[in-house]
Amino acid sequence: MRRWWRGGGERERCGVVVCARRYGSAPWGRAGQGCWNEEIRPQRKMLAQLKALWSTGNGILLICVYLKLRSVSVDLNVDPSLQIDIPDALSEKDRVKFTVHTKTTLPAFQSPEFSVTRQHEDFVWLHDTLTETEEYAGLIIPPAPSKPDFDGPREKMQKLGEGEVSMTKEEFAKMKQELEAEYLAVFKKTVSSHEIFLQRIASHPVLSKDRNFHVFLEYDQDLSVRRKNTKEMFGGFLKSVVKSADEVLFSGVKEVEDFFEQEKTFLVNYYNRIKDACAKADKMTRSHKNVADDYIYTSACLNSLALEEPTVIKKYLLKVAELFEKLRKVESRVSSDEDLKLSELLRYYMLNIEAAKDLLYRRTRALVDYENSNKALDKARLKSKDVRLAEAHQQDCCQKFEKISESAKQELMSFKQKRIAAFRKNLIEMAELEIKHAKNNVSLLQSCIDLFKN
């Protein structure tokens, strides 16, 4: 892969294709005016094309991103009759517009292939409607994707621009390159999480038939889903408080099936383990990233030193500087691969475990309602008052509880199988990448040693 920059020179980067143009002065710009263009030609088939319009305080950066690799392997049984992807996304300040492309053979849709534009709030609306639908109480509702957040990379870019005077030209260029890659990685994961959410629904035998889901995919106009106001956000907070209180009260409810008691205990313990593992995985990836950043300064120092040394030593210093630059690229890829294959998977399953725990909460609530209806029926029979009404209510509660229990058991068993398969796949892929990068490091070091010997 090669990159062509204004002013000449070629540099390498793997994983993304970027075509960018800057108007005016951006906080990380060295020249202040003008533009720059960048192109990377991928060696593999490109899976998605993204467009990001990044507004800054002093100018606008327009980025078109072509992604080659998905950020996390998903536990999906893809239904060929309903295929969904997000081939394009546009970022405007704090808002991201996603192009949702659907290809289907199902008669429920008006055409076999279509695309619509959706915002993050539309995805949240779809998740909320599925969660609030009573007949889906026995299902694990896929967790809503996280809100797009690019503040971190932007702040780092701002700080880099402010500290430009204290850096050499080479240090600044390499640090800017690293931060650009970080922003693109965040953007890539944002798009991927929204795509995975839709694909999870599409692969579900029940949720894929939901009317609101079809409207989300097919309606070619703006859904006009507004952001929640303060009152609605406070209402959501109250619901979470009520749910927390219910969970405390329900903790004393005696479970009627050992399967669900075991699942509840397992999910609570498993979530804590996953959360701890995720924190340690993030620490590991940051360590690799810090090493890569240190290599930038080491390489720059060796280059500066080479300019002040005699010709014989200069040659060796430049070779070592080149070695550290190559090691930096490998170390950056190690950090990126660990984040995509491990950290993202752990974060993904933290959200999924919460969704599974929500399912168990709904089932426990149905069990409590059923037990209360039994007590109400006993009281009605003792008083010989409203017996038929109490019997009807008891029957409804019984049927609801049994339906949720049957569906929940299937969902949890399927969840376990998919979880094991996803972890197995990702851990194997990560191990293979770790071996590959380790071999690259050994090869680079050995080549440098052989060069010095000769």
Automatic annotation (TrEMBL):
InterPro entries: AH/BAR_dom_sf, BAR_SNX5, PX_dom, PX_dom_sf, PX_SNX5, SNX5/SNX6/SNX32, Vps5_C
Name of the protein in its database record: Sorting nexin 5
Alphabetized Gene3D superfamilies for the sequence: Arfaptin homology (AH) domain/BAR domain, Phox-like domain
Phylogenetic classification of the source organism: Eukaryota, Metazoa, Chordata, Craniata, Vertebrata
One GO MF term: phosphatidylinositol binding
Key words of the record: Protein transport, Transport
GO cellular component: cytosol; endosome
Pfam families to which the protein is assigned, alphabetical: PX, Vps5
GO biological process: intracellular protein transport; pinocytosis; retrograde transport, endosome to Golgi
Entry's transmembrane regions: none
Domain PX: from-to ranges: 76-223
Species per Swiss-Prot/TrEMBL record: Cyanistes caeruleus (Eurasian blue tit)
Family recorded in the similarity comment: Belongs to the sorting nexin family.
PROSITE patterns on file: PX
Origin superkingdom: Eukaryota
